[in-house]
Amino acid sequence: MKTLDFIGLNASNANNVVDALQKLLADYQVFYTNLRGFHWNIKGPDFFVLHAKFEELYDNIAEKVDEIAERILMLGGEPASTFSAYLKKASIRELPGVSKGDEALKNVLETYGYLIGQQRNVLTVASEAGDEGTVALMSDYIREQEKLVWMLTAYGTRA
Questions:
Q1: Residue 149 within any structural domain of the chain
Q2: Does this model's pTM top 0.90?
Q3: Residue 1 located in a structural domain
Q4: Which of 56, 133, 150, 152 is packed most tightly, with the most Cβ within 10 A?
Q5: What's the total number of domains in the chain?
Q6: Domain range for 15
């Protein structure tokens, strides 16, 4: 028995969604690692604020990684589970050695901007496949991250 047999999605269309989710999973995994590095290595007057914020962000990303991987499984795929596979598929690149708050924050904002665009792409593919579960997941992510970008932008432009 397969999940697709019971949830009413066409296997071919589901495969298109799985492909889009695999790329998103890879991008999320690289971003997670970058956030861990920012958390560990941040220095300067914003240390306490950013150290805590980066931990909050990577915890949130870890939850999303799990949700995306589980969605891939629900749709009949097998989520990638190695960093070598993630690095081949991801557009987000590793960013080692960042210790300045403004540089880390700039990267975080740029990455969320990219991820929001990727999630809109997944939403479109899922919508075309009739996959309301993935559409809802992506809509939730986009709404949450747009608010986060607004808040981080406000923080980054403080006087």
A1: yes
A2: yes
A3: no
A4: 152
A5: 1
A6: 8-156
CA 111 to chain CA centroid, Å, is 9
Residue ranges of the alpha helices (H) in 101-159? 101-128, 132-156
Distance of CA 51 to the CA centre of its chain: 20
One-letter identity of residue 36: R
Name the residue type at position 58: Y
- Which candidate, 28, 48, 50, places its Cα nearest to that of 104? 50
Let me know if residue 3 belongs to a domain. no
- Residue 86, CB-side half-sphere exposure with 13 Å CA sphere: 19
Residue 156: per-residue pLDDT: 82
**Does residue 115 lie in a domain region?**
yes
Chain segment 25-75, per-residue pLDDT in tens:
999 999 999 999 999 999 999 999 999 999 999 999 999 999 999 999 999
Which CATH number goes with the domain that contains 23? 1.20.1260.10
Distances (CA, A) of 135 to 12, 15, 77, 140: 17, 15, 17, 9
